[in-house]
Amino acid sequence: MTKPTATWFDTLAASVQALGAASREYRMAERAAQHALWNTDPTRVFPVVGAVSVPRRNVVRPHHDALRQLRALHTEMHERTKTLYENAAETYAHGAAAALHSVLLGERPEYVEFNVRPTVPLPDLRALLGEWAGSGRLATLREQVAERKHARAVVADFEFFEDLAGCVIPEWSHASDQAAGLADSAHAYGETAESALYFVLLTGRTPRDGEDGRR
């Protein structure tokens, strides 16, 4: 029995699903690293005041050393997984948007094709999506991603200036809080764009085709 050949929309959907799955894996890893870091927070966990005598090291405090080393490891892991999650979420958002945009224009890509860099703003698909129920949410998430990407750039500028001037800029805190939600917003955008893609693929038409029943 011959194996059936996958159609273009099967491989395209699988391509988007793989991006979403990768983003979710990194999100879980980032959350786990964050929780592990919290478990060694010095304001929450107080080291047991006990010491031992070790040759050539005099007195060692085992619990204090364990917390210190674990916190360093968890901090490194959290920073790494946070970056990976953010990159994966943005890739998911742009990949799902690119696939959806192509199908809405009548194209039939077999896989997600990255024709633009992630630094380019996400496309505004409201006109092409017409009356699709999630169009408003997709537009809102698009704005959130743009705002938070801008905040991330502002934070980078502040940190550069801080290194040069040796002082903390008050506006840094607000921009940092905004930028912190970039990965979650990008991931949510990717999920919503993926839902729109399924709608278009399953119905075989764009949302606005329903107005007159013709393509």
Mean pLDDT level = 85
Spatial ordering of strands, largest sheet: 1-2
- In terms of DSSP E residues, the strand content is under 5%
Q: What distance separates the N and C termini?
A: 37 Å
Number of strands: 2
Biggest sheet: strands, sense, closure?
Answer: 2 strands, antiparallel
The gyration radius over C-alpha positions equals: 24 Å
Number of helices: 6
List keywords for this structure.
2 strands; 215 residues; 3% strand; mainly alpha
Provide structural commentary.
The chain has 215 residues and is mainly α. Helix content is 65%, strand content 3%. The chain is built from six helices and two strands. A two-stranded antiparallel sheet has the order 1-2. α1 runs antiparallel to α2 (62-104) and α2 (62-104) runs parallel beside α6 (182-203). The longest helix has 43 residues, at 62-104. The radius of gyration is 24 Å and the shape is elongated.
What is the strand and helix layout of this fold?
Elements (H helix, E strand, L loop, with lengths): L7 H31 L13 E3 L3 E3 L1 H43 L21 H4 L5 H31 L6 H9 L1 H22 L12
Helix pairs in contact: 1-2, 1-6, 2-6, 4-5, 4-6
